[in-house]
């Protein structure tokens, strides 16, 4: 039986990968990326306890209980992105998978439920010689409430 | 949640353009005439139409000549001189040397040509993109930038067929068929020109389908390139 499973955590397109970051050498561009094995969310609860995510492959977000009091992301490069307090959070990881087996993580799109809209914190996970964004940058945008994704993974604050 | 698992397949010899019917990881994707495509080891090869190509001699898209069936003897293709030319055949080349003909893939009116099975949940559509390489950052190859004769459009045409077969815009020689301007289609180039394969905001445990071909223009150079087809998605 032939079993196809791309859920592994190997990244064949990375030429150099260390604990901090990795490099992808393209034809005309050099891309620097976070090490997705060492990026995670950290949720804080009112009693001071913390729950840490696993990595960008298996985030652990679904298992996270609601009632958190703060949320932050820790990147392998040392960047810590504190997400301000909102009613609820829904992070979405943006990834590309190539038919050659390669993979790259572009952004963590943290959707935050506010009173009248959804605020999106787009955390940059890669940088190169062309795009102006750098690793750890945060790009903010907004969505109207009627575009809320009612998928189960929203986690509400205390 | 973990990253969703994608399984890729092509319609190899299913009679009558049948859907894949693959139902998830752990099972054999080689069912119903479909062949699983293993990323990293398999190649999607667009070729055919060269001089003395037995397929051309036999005059049928399904008449596979022996020279194109074994590793190392791929037929060439043509850089056209008088009108555009659609590369006629698409194969999946396996590391054991076998090449499997994706018989419904190309400028055809077939719906079930290429498929992607999504195991688990995506919080977005699944987008098909094309890039220079696996840095997923540039689109400078001529096949993606296009030429004057292609109006600056990429040579790589893809269309979503999850909901329906491609439109067929008349006949002729060469046929107009469908192209990247049709609804649900794109001349693939980076993130800007891509195809949303599901036409949905979320995808869960389902198969999305697409068709794809490469059309060469008379003003293109001769090239051998390996752009990367990529799938972009979101998950929690």
Element layout with pairings:
The complex is a heterodimer of chains A (158) and B (236).
Chain A: E1 16-17, E2 21-25, E3 30-34, E4 40-44, E5 50-52, E6 70-74, E7 80-83, E8 88-98, E9 103-113, E10 117-124, E11 126-127, E12 138-144, E13 155-156
Antiparallel strand pairs in A: 1-2, 2-3, 3-11, 4-5, 4-6, 6-7, 8-9, 8-13, 9-10, 10-12
Chain B: E1 5-11, E2 34-37, E3 43-47, H1 54-58, E4 85-86, E5 89-93, E6 99-101, E7 114-122, E8 127-131, H2 142-145, E9 156-160, E10 185-187, E11 195-196, E12 203-216, E13 228-235
Antiparallel strand pairs in B: 1-2, 1-7, 3-5, 4-12, 5-6, 7-12, 8-11, 8-13, 9-10, 9-12
Give helix % range of chain A.
under 10%
Strand order, largest beta sheet of chain A: 12-10-9-8-13
Helix content of chain B: under 10%
> What class, by secondary structure content of chain A?
mainly beta
Overall pLDDT of chain B: 85
One letter per element, helices H and strands E, the order of chain A comes to EEEEEEEEEEEEE
The stretches of 5 or more residues of chain A where confidence is low (pLDDT under 50) are: 1-5
Alpha-carbon distance between the termini of chain B? 6 Å
Number of strands of chain A: 13
If you had to describe this structure to a student in words, what would you say it looks like?
- The complex is a heterodimer of chains A (158) and B (236).
- With 158 residues, chain A is mostly beta strands.
- Chain A has strands spanning 16-17, 21-25, 30-34, 40-44, 50-52, 70-74, 80-83, 88-98, 103-113, 117-124, 126-127, 138-144, 155-156.
- In chain A, the strands form 3 sheets. In chain A, strands 12-10-9-8-13 form a 5-stranded antiparallel sheet, with no helix packed on it. In chain A, strands 1-2-3-11 form a 4-stranded antiparallel sheet, with no helix packed on it. In chain A, strands 5-4-6-7 form a 4-stranded antiparallel sheet, with no helix packed on it.
- Chain B has 236 residues and is mainly beta.
- Chain B has one domain (5-232).
- Chain B has helices spanning 54-58, 142-145; strands at 5-11, 34-37, 43-47, 85-86, 89-93, 99-101, 114-122, 127-131, 156-160, 185-187, 195-196, 203-216, 228-235.
- In chain B, strands 1, 2, 4, 7, 9, 10 and 12 form a 7-stranded antiparallel sheet that branches. Chain B has a 3-stranded antiparallel sheet with strand order 3-5-6, with no helix packed on it. A 3-stranded antiparallel sheet of chain B has the order 11-8-13, with no helix packed on it.
- The interface between A and B is large, with 45 and 44 residues.
